[in-house]
């Protein structure tokens, strides 16, 4: 196990201009390709901090082998604490004023860092910078996973917050460390959507942008977090939006000090007003209607409750038809009957 103190004791030379931050948990399948894409950057002056979050596969051995070959690679091998704890630990360990996020299953373009650093040098008002991505499948082949690219300007970012469009692809981001620390880093309560909550809080402090260049190959495959925890993720996104509205109104954010979000039934009490749980259920349910995993799992029950509370519309009728294509005729009929009774 590598401790934080050991890392700093072993650091030599001048402070690097960039810290690269990666957390990995049982990610041996794609890890070497991801690390290689970072080490092959045409901008080479960085430290590469990688937290192994209690992996039980070959991840620790891979990290140690890379560290033996390249002094920029600094592995932190420890017990499992979860992604939010890992990201905050990486922020605390980073020596550079700029931190580049990277995931253990994606591939960075060779000029990713140089392109983003050049933009940030020319635009000191921008505190968070992402980029467009190319979607790939588990075999590295191109695939189509998202309907649109991420917003380029801060104004487009804010417009997407309102309309529910894409904001930032987390592993494309380079941010100014002091700005992220000034808002408290990643919040524990928003597990599986910790980045979305952070972007909303940062938008009140700094400008956010994306380079309209495809600087990351973003991998999609069965079993990744965004698919396994889609329901919890979308409930968290809906709560993060409500927390943002509280801050915008000058009221305290009731989620700020939570270690975990409470059950839906307790959200009215948390926010101190009625119908919060119903609003969150509706937002989350409608965001899940295209997900086979959600509609054949817990997301379906969330959707039915939303309909029972008054939710209706053509999009929900189309979901009933989609359930037939998913091979769920009983669920399709039950949803259609619930919609017809409205």
Automatic annotation (TrEMBL):
The keyword Transferase applies. Keywords: Glycosyltransferase, Transferase. Transmembrane segments: none annotated. It holds the Pfam family Glycos_transf_2. One of its GO terms (molecular function) is glycosyltransferase activity. It comes from the Bacteria. InterPro entries: Glyco_trans_2-like (IPR001173), Glycosyltransf_2 (IPR050834), Nucleotide-diphossugar_trans (IPR029044). Residues 19-141 form the Glycosyltransferase 2-like domain. Coiled coil: none annotated. Belongs to the glycosyltransferase 2 family. This is Glycosyltransferase. It comes from Alteraurantiacibacter buctensis.
